[in-house]
Amino acid sequence: MKLRLIMLCLLCVLLLGGCGWPDGSYHSVTPHQELSANSRTENLVVTNYEELVAAMEDVVSRGTESCIINAVNYEGEDLQLGLINAIRHIQKVYPIGAYAVEDLKVEVGSNTGKTAIALSVSYRHSRTEIRKIRNAENREAAKKLICDALEDYETVLVLQLEDYEQMDFTQIVRDHAMDTPQAVMEIPQVTSEVYGIGHSRVVELTFSYQTSLDSLRTMQAQVQPVFDSAVLYVSGEGSQSQKYSQLYAFLMERFDYTVETSITPAYSLLRHGVGDSRAFATVYAAMCRAAGLDCVVVTGTRSGDPWVWNIICQDDVYYHVDLMRCNENGRFRKLLDEEMMGYVWDYSAYPRCVREESLTEVAVPEDTLPQEIEK
Prior knowledge:
By secondary structure, the protein is an alpha+beta fold. Helix content is 39%, strand content 22%. The longest helix has 21 residues, at 213-233.
């Protein structure tokens, strides 16, 4: 009697554990209970390789850890070969799988007398991390998401690019920081990993900051009112020339500046009076643009040293403005290309700063043109 009771208990344990008899087939026997979020899935049915791949992609995209896939009229060597190729596809080609899946195992058996596949997936990234993957259709959409992440001081950004192309993520980050010094307090170090093969890929970007995120957000909140005040400072009636010089005065009269490079250029310049040519040029350009004035940042050299300054557009004529040189000379001054002695820059990348008459094309009389020689 005691032996029969032990055997009955053992049988119950096997059944409740979802195990089958060791006859090479797979049986799923579970008690009536709610499945966990990681194991709940629809009843998947496949009839060929394409449907098998689609089912496995769906399982992985949901972060499901285990499920049963029923195979109808799809068995034998075709199924075995299909599973080998499908596993490789999920782990190497499918971008979410390449990003998230640590290991993937399958076992072929039977489920209620029909061919079935027991799928078991372990992940290197959690279900929550998979859900946080952001879709970007193209390069421009990806750049927009990267810029938003920088302004929100996110440390990790995972994108699925539908039409992937190689991108210089470090340059994208630097360009946005140069364009928006009022929003990006520090340029982070960027590392990237690309997952998948083909047109669609997952890109994982990690942003590393030297300054704490809370401090950066505090700096951002303290700097923004200064930019708002600059816009109000030139909001009245006045010519473009007046507004450019007024913004120069607004910036230069704040401190007796100390020339020094900082990892938080806009904050150090506007709150502590510490900055270099890059800090002055990027902050001035951002203030000009916010006030509706045309101003770009130029990178080059001055007397052989790395240097940054601005080009403004006043009444359709372009001029160089080097705020640090203006500060040295004690007045706001606009310069043409010919006056930029000692400066070197990529002349093809920026507008020409020349006298207006130099841009006028000189008409050539027809009688001075070379005539075609008659044969």
